[in-house]
Specification:
about 100 residues; mainly alpha; 434 Repressor (Amino-terminal Domain)
């Protein structure tokens, strides 16, 4: 049996889009704050931050809270920005008629 992950429960590739969007948002905020991955990683690792920023790893809620605090914001604020991005992408895809049918 594989690793348990909440992302496995998201339908039709949404886990990948969520991970990528979260990583992009964290990276955008880190660069805007002129911080290095090392500076925001403690007590985590720079490698972990890199994996999250590239959408390869989903941080736990406690890890996201640590990262958000290092960035001078809240996990809630970051997640709201990610949700807004994903909703905008969804609206554009559906407005252009390029949405795919769910697999089932």
């Amino acid at each position: 049996m594989g690793k348990a992950s909440i992302t496995n429960l998201l339908p039709n590739g949404r886990a990948g889009r969520f991970s990528e969007s979260l990583g992009s948002e964290l990276r955008r905020r880190r660069l805007a704050a002129q911080l290095s991955q090392d500076e925001i990683s403690r007590p985590l690792t720079r490698g972990f931050i890199s994996q999250v920023e590239h959408g390869r790893t989903m941080p736990s809620l406690p890890a996201l809270i640590v990262i958000a605090e290092r960035l001078g914001t809240s996990a809630d604020d970051i997640l709201r920005a990610v949700n807004q991005t994903l909703n905008s992408e969804y609206a554009v895809r559906h407005a252009n008629g390029s949405a795919t049918k769910p697999r089932g």
